[in-house]
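Team,

Forwarding the record for the chain on the shared tracking sheet. I've put the sequence and predicted structure together so nobody has to dig through attachments.
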Amino acid sequence: MAYTTEVHVALDGDDDAPGTPERPFATIDRARRAAREAAGDVVVHVRAGTYPGPWEFTEEDSAREGSRITYQANGFGTPAQDEVVISGGRVIAGWRVGGDGVWVMDVGTLDTRHLTVDGRRVDRAAIDGIPGEVSENESGYVTDARLDWRAGVEFVHRGVYPWTEARLAVESVADGTITMKQPAFSWARQLYNSSWDGQTSSGPGLPTRVENDPSFLTEPGTFALDRSRPGEHVLHYLPRPGEDPAATRVVAPERDTLLTATGASGISFRGLTFADTTWLRPTGDRGFLHYHGNGFHDGGRIDTVVVVEGQSWLTVTGEPETVPACVSLVGTTGIRFEGCRFTRLGSTALGVTGGADTVVRGCGFDTLAAGAITLTGTDRAVVEDSVVHRVGLDHSGSPGISLLATVDCTVAHNRVDDVPHCGIVGGPAKGTRILHNHVTGAMGVLADGGGIYVSGPQGESHEDGAVVRGNVVTDTRTPYNFALYTDYGAAWMTVADNVVRRADNTAVLHVHPPLDNVVYRGNVWDADPVGSDAVPDSVTYEDNVTLTDAADLDAAEARAQAGPRRR
């Protein structure tokens, strides 16, 4: 008979103690060692407090066959559950206040692109574009305005393509001459080239936003990090009314990873909060040359995609990299997250690569620089009853939830809202199930995407193809989008019994490359899809209903039973 071993951890514990309720361990590392030595199920109770990341798990930390090791907030699932935070941040205290009201702090070698004040993410100080008359050249830009910017300025290029937002760092500024960091700027000039309806564009163009200089501090509740003196960085924060430097908790994220698991199996995490990381990639020499979704260019091959022969084409990265995750699983089996929160993170929250049988249940994802969940090349993952809110704050192309090259993965009964591009994305895969999700407020910033977007081959028949069923998609917002978007040669898909309201377009049946063996059946929407008056031969379109009465649409939403279920 297998018994459950109970292990306790507390910030005021002692790793030389036995790990009992009365004499807990002090660190997760010590608890991991104890779990390795135990037989049967193990529960590690983590008491209230903020613990530094990263927590690291390997194959040696796996549960024994038939057992499970659980790391959970003490009192998980009860009204007395402790608040346990795994943090990548550092508390900033001892501010001096300048005559202009700006708080200033010498932070040494600290490098970050993010800041948290009393649990609230604050934005970097910014202006809209480069002042003056501006021209672009091979090394950067020239303006007739005199600039006195310090080191650390970053350019945002929103809408290089309608679905793309790049970030490039400035190397130096001398009066009106802006020299950009290399090779990022040269790569950008090679990557972003297109011709559309007779209009040709070349390079990243002018930035739409300029971030991170103390001179931009005009909006209360914003910050800038001055990197002018290597190793002697200075943090500037313009407080909101009523904030007191002696009573305000300021956290500067300085790590990019909170938890990694490689080759591990049979581990659960319950009731934990993962918070306060940064990601310095956009600040570096290689920049962040976004193309689509979570993908970005890091040198290498550049391909040309012809949309209309002799008329429209564009260049794209041929070997994309993926935005990394703060919580990363690689080659794991049976890892579970239940009732966890992921917040104020500088890149993707949770990334799963390879492996199988990951479960994410009843979790919350909010205030993220990139997306919430990325599944890549994994089998039988389940994401259910979770909430994704306010993501893509730095990297607007990031989907709420994305799947690529997965097998038999399910995304069901989640709520996804306030997303700057696509809500849920499925790339080429097999056996994907996107069921009874409520996606609202997608496509808030970038264009050409959808509340639910699926592209490419989805299997070899309808038996192992994709099913998008019972979802409710509302308020899909930018001027060019489709609430349900089957795109780029999507094949072997069934899109059924979904409800769509208030989208620029409800769905589209004509795309390039064309759809193949795609079924649209029994959907309810408030406008006819694009192409429904001339349905392609490769699309089955039947029993779909267009309604305009709000009460009828309300009833259809209720029948869909979309969104998280109460447990």
